[in-house]
Amino acid sequence: MFEKQIHIPSAEEIIAERPVPAPLKKIKEERDALAKDVIAGRSEKLLVIVGPCSAHEPKPVLDYVSRLGKLNEKVKDKLVLVPRIYTAKPRTKGVGYKGMFSQPDPEHEENTLRGIRTIRDLLLSSIEQSGLSAADEMLYPENYAYVEDLLTYVAVGARSSENQLHRLVASGVEQPVGIKNPMSGSIPVLMNSIFAAQSAQVFKYHEWQVKTNGNSYAHAVLRGRVDNYGNDIPNYHYETVMQVYESYLHAEGGLQNPAVIIDCNHSNSGKRFKQQIRIVEEVLQNRLYDADFKKIVKGFMIESFLVEGCQQHDVIYGQSITDPCLGWEDTERLIYDIAEKV
């Protein structure tokens, strides 16, 4: 049985309530172009998607993104920084805090309508205060329509990459979509997902049958895998990246814009957040070693917030309430280091 609780207006109605002002729209269009240029190989910059595991409270997120905007001005010749503002949180067992989209106050009950409005306000304020448009995970494909005019990068998670609707909706997204390898780590499954997202599709979306042209900027994200015993197995090493490179080259039907983003946390780090620094360093060294490795690795995903680590409840300002993150000082040093070694 489904108990109806709150009626949710359409995406068009919500966007009309909180439209993007022309100056911010221009900023986002410019940021979209920068991200696309990296994925397509038209730019030698690296794309760095960086920010908290989940955005549970607007004020510290805006504080973080404002700092990132200032840092971006110092590294923009080498990097394209995209703040990670993830507003829906997947749960391994299906229970617990599921993100700002459904629960805008993590200490109170779900209120999806207030969550949607809170997110639009947050994403608008983020662009206004930092000059940076954000990345978010498309955990629920239907929800993407409520924020599609505000995002520069969209991620499809490991649990979702084999899902048909995620692949179909990704084919209609105009910005780069990073598709993570499935939890099993299967490279063929990952490449099939990218192929589907790059292909034209026809399907039902909201109240319409829609047709897409395919998203040529859909690409691979390596986040590590989990074996049958629950052990985290990293896949950022040279051998796996080059396997993906070969898969791109020999994909049946062809794939556009070969690209890999390295997710430095999750199963690559075993959620040991400090390991993200070492992982970045190894990948940067491999880019120096092999021209093909350098050509396909386009950047990093890094989980970072104002205060390192994590907490169970929102007590410490600017600390994650989900997975542990790097603190700001380590993040700043790491971003400078990446910029120096591009």
Task: Outline the structure in words.
The chain has 342 residues and is α/β, with parallel strands linked by helices. The protein has one domain (11-341): TIM Barrel (Alpha-Beta Barrel), CATH 3.20.20.70. The protein is built from ten helices and 14 strands. The chain has helices at 11-17, 22-40, 58-75, 112-130, 164-170, 187-198, 238-249, 275-289, 291-296, 328-341; strands spanning 46-51, 79-83, 134-137, 151-156, 177-180, 201-205, 208-212, 218-222, 225-226, 232-233, 260-263, 297-303, 307-310, 319-320. It has an eight-stranded parallel β-sheet. Strands 6-7 form a two-stranded antiparallel sheet. Strand 9 (225-226) and strand 10 form a beta hairpin. Helix 3 runs parallel beside helix 4, helix 5 (164-170) packs across helix 6 and helix 8 (275-289) packs parallel to helix 10 (328-341). The radius of gyration is 19 Å and the shape is globular. The termini are far apart. The model has no long low-confidence stretch (mean pLDDT 96).
